[in-house]
Amino acid sequence: MSQTQAGIMDFRWNLWRPLLDCKLCRSIAFSVFVLILAIESIILIPSSLNFYNNELRRLEEKAVATVNAALMIDGQLQPERLQVQVSGLLRDTQILGLSVLRRDGSILSHAGDADFGDFKFEVVLQDPFQIARRRIRNGRCYDIAWSRNINGTPLILLARMDSSGLNTALVAFVLRIAGLVALIVAVVTSGTMLVLYRSVLNPILRLRGSMLAAAANPNRAHDFRISERPGDELGDVFEAHNQMLRRVAESKLADRLRAEEQARFLVRHDTLTGLPNRTFFLEHLRQALQAACQRRENVVVFVVNLAAFRAINDSLGQAAGDRVLREAARRLNEGLQPPLFVARLAGDDFGIAWAGPIPPSDSAAQAEQILAKLSHPINLSGTEVRLQARIGIAHSKGDCVDPETLLHDANLALSRARDDAQTRYQFFAPSMTEEARRRQEIERELRYALEHEGLQLFYQAKVDLGSVEDEPHLAACEALIRWRHPTWGILSPAQFIPIAEATGLILRLGDWALHAACAQICSWQAEHRTPPRIAVNLSAEQFRDRDLPERVGRILQACGTDPALLELEITESAAMEDAANTMKTLSALRKLGVRLAIDDFGTGYSSLSYLRKFEIDSIKIDKSFVDDISRDANADAICETIISLGRSLGKRVVAEGVETDTQLEFLRSRGCHEAQGYLFGRPVPAPEFAIRLARHD
Ligand code: C2E
Ligand code: MG
Ligand code: MG
After folding, report:
1. N or C: which end of the chain has fewer CB within 10 A?
2. Percentage of the chain surpassing pLDDT 90?
3. Is 73 in a helix, a strand, or coil?
4. Mean pLDDT of 248-254
5. Which pLDDT tens digit goes with each residue over 301-335?
6. CATH 3.20.20.450 spans which residues of the chain?
7. Which atom of ligand 1 is nearest to the CA of 571?
8. What region does 119 belong to: left with phi over 0, alpha with psi -120 to 50, or beta?
């Protein structure tokens, strides 16, 4: 097959293929095909009958003419020759038989197959122009009768003709017509299909293509509209389709713009409170600082932190925490005068920006206002919560500072405010930057010390005041952490514990101290007859940790330590932070078999009802009261009260920071159970403390 032929075949196939694939076209073409076939068939029946009758008439006319002509010789009827003529006719024509009758029915002549029996031809007797006819022998023979007046003699002529040839002609006629019909059907069907292809299928395929493309790319739907439109109803459909594509594109565009707007909002706002977020706050601050820098005006940044937020979140659940944040955001955003730019910076930190000619005294008043707004109680499904906030404040003082620096300064001021329980708000001072740098350094070094055995426990004796001997009996000892730094020397806990708490290092540090103390208990147990109980301090941050009992249990198990020889000291302020939770934690710790003590008692606004419920073994009178014994009547009274309170609650009372005999005598006389202080020994490293233990043994 040549390339051209192949090309033509391809073209034909490409034309017909979609047509054959098209169900609609197939069903229309098939309907047209069946319809034409039915019409042609209906027409064929009368045509065939008509054809057959016409053929008969011709046969009939031919027979009549032939017979008439044959019987008339020179215009005369010659009966004597009749027989001969009739016989001649039978030989030369399709006439099979012939009878010539007189009107009375008597036969004048007959020849051939002339058995006309019951042929009722009377009609020709009345009307000489009539012909009587009948078919016999399944249409193979055809009889006709007619009257003829010859030389005044009225005669009846009966002729039998061979009509078998007519059936063959009829079949040929029907076949010819059927062939014609088939041709017409083929042409009409093909024509119909071509018209369908051009007028229906092709536009529908274009429409489908456009719809599929638009569905795949709804954002560009308008690009797929159909430009050339047929002038018929499909053209209207195209128009409607184009309109729909335009609407889809418009609605998609509107959706996209809305989504972009929403995304822009989300990027710059906090989803929980709806307030601007840190990014937006810094943007706003940048603009405010630029404007203030030109006018030499002040911009004040307040960073507000909700002090007990974490405790609320832990004890009442995250949903309650979220409500607190939303309520705090609402109060800050709606309640302040003049309206300030408020944002949620992170967690429980809010930022407030205020630009204008603002003296520091005004910003202090504003800080008071913020604290007052937040201090109103919040009702959380029956539980009333009072928020305590801390604020760090930084001023630009007309300087052209960048927003990050100003915010950083406010954050530094906030950290200082958080370090001191009495401070509610704090202004930034340049010295804080140096201090912050120092804290960072301490944090870094502390991490290193934790990993490289730079920490050590010192032990300080607790003596039993109930013993009668001159030298009081060693009751227990307290483990006090020390940090041996290669260049800074020995650092006391006050220098690094707050930093460890602020950075989260305290949990690792606390674990380390517990581990070291437990290991020490085991070692002294092996070496001494009466190993002392060791008390370990827990920081507030450690105590807030829900996993604390589990952690302690794990460490006790890992070291194989007798829990009865371990005591845990929790400061009174940490215990009172969330009294309900404290009860649970103390109870869980108690189940481990360890002893529990409330440290620094008298400084943390203790609620007596809670103290009664706490499952503790002892309370430790804070050193500040012991210091003033015999010097301040109030201190004497407080110490006396704590001792009697402890005794009445069935708790052991320990006095810490005992330095003088006077203090010792006072405490002993008031019934204090134990004492701890320089009078009985300073905190010392384990080997030194072991010498005392040996003496005690
Ligand atoms: P604290 O638990 O109340 O410990 C008593 C503090 O008073 C100790 O200070 C101790 O050396 C000191 N002290 C005892 N007797 C006297 C005395 O007669 N005179 C004077 N002037 N001081 C006396 P230190 O060791 O500096 O510890 C301070 C605080 O650091 C502790 O107070 C405790 O709250 C905390 N701390 C110590 N070790 C740890 C620890 O391992 N973990 C945690 N979380 N905190 C610790
Ligand atoms: Mg202590
Ligand atoms: Mg203490």
Report:
1. N
2. 44
3. strand
4. 88
5. 999 999 878 878 877 888 889 999 999 999 998 87
6. 451-696
7. 34
8. beta
Ligand 1 pocket test, pick from 480, 495, 503 with the greatest ligand atom count within 8 Å of Cβ, gives: 480
d(CA 356, CA 298) in angstroms, rounded, equals 5
Which pTM value belongs to this model? 0.58
Whether 262 lines ligand 1, by a CB cut-off of 6 Å, is no
CA separation for the pair 103, 82 (Å, rounded): 17
List the one residue out of 356, 283, 578, 667 whose CA is nearest residue 680: 667
Please tell me the distance between residue 537's alpha carbon and the centre of ligand 2 in angstroms: 5
**Structure tokens of 68?**
């008439």
Helices (H), ranges, 403-492 = 403-419, 431-451
| CA of 625 relative to ligand 2 center, distance in Å | 15
Q: Identify the CA nearest to 550 among candidates 497, 591, 579.
A: 591
CATH of domain 269-429: 3.30.70.270
Residues of the chain with CATH 3.40.1840.10: 49-166
Q: Counting ligands in written order, which one lies closest to the CA of residue 569?
A: 2
Cβ–ligand 1 contact at 622 (below 6 Å): no
Q: Which residue's CA is the closest to the ligand 1 atom numbered 25?
A: 480
Shortest-distance Cα residue to atom 27 of ligand 1 = 493
For residue 361, how many other CB atoms are within 10 A of its CB? 8
Render pLDDT for 526-576 as a digit per residue (tens, 0 to 9).
Answer: 998 889 999 999 999 899 888 999 999 999 999 999 999 999 999 998 898
249-271: burial string, b at 16+ Cβ within 10 Å, e else: beebeeeeeeeeeeeeeeebbbe
| Interval 646-668 mean pLDDT | 95
- Structure confidence by residue, pLDDT tens digits, 87-142: 777 777 788 888 888 888 888 777 788 788 788 888 888 887 888 888 887 778 88
In sequence order, what are the residues at sequence separation of 6 or more whose Cβ sits closer than 8 angstroms to the Cβ of residue 378?
323, 324, 327, 384, 385, 386, 387
User: Is the model's pLDDT at 7 over the cut of 60?
Assistant: no
**Are 139 and 166 in contact, with CB atoms under 8 Å apart?**
yes
- Encoded amino acid at 435, one letter: E
| CB-ligand 1 contact for 230 (6 Å cutoff) | no
Topology annotation, domain 49-166 = Profilin-like (3.40.1840)
Cα(537) to centroid(ligand 3), Å: 9
Which residue, 639, 543, 626, is CA-closest to 585?
A: 543
Give the distance, in angstroms, between the CA of residue 542 and the centroid of all CA atoms in the same chain. Answer: 38
Rounded Cα distance between 382 and 359, Å, is: 42
Cα of 460 from ligand 1 centre, angstroms: 9
If one counts every other C-beta atom within 10 angstroms of the C-beta of residue 537, the result is 21
The pairing of strands 595-601 and 618-621 is parallel
**String of DSSP letters for 132-161:** EEEEETTTTEEEEEEEEEETTEEEEEEEEE
**613 CB contacts (<8 Å, ≥6 apart)?**
583
Tell me which residue has its CA closest to atom 19 in ligand 1.
657
Every domain of the chain with CATH number 3.30.70.270 lies at: 269-429
CA of 492, closest atom in ligand 1: 26
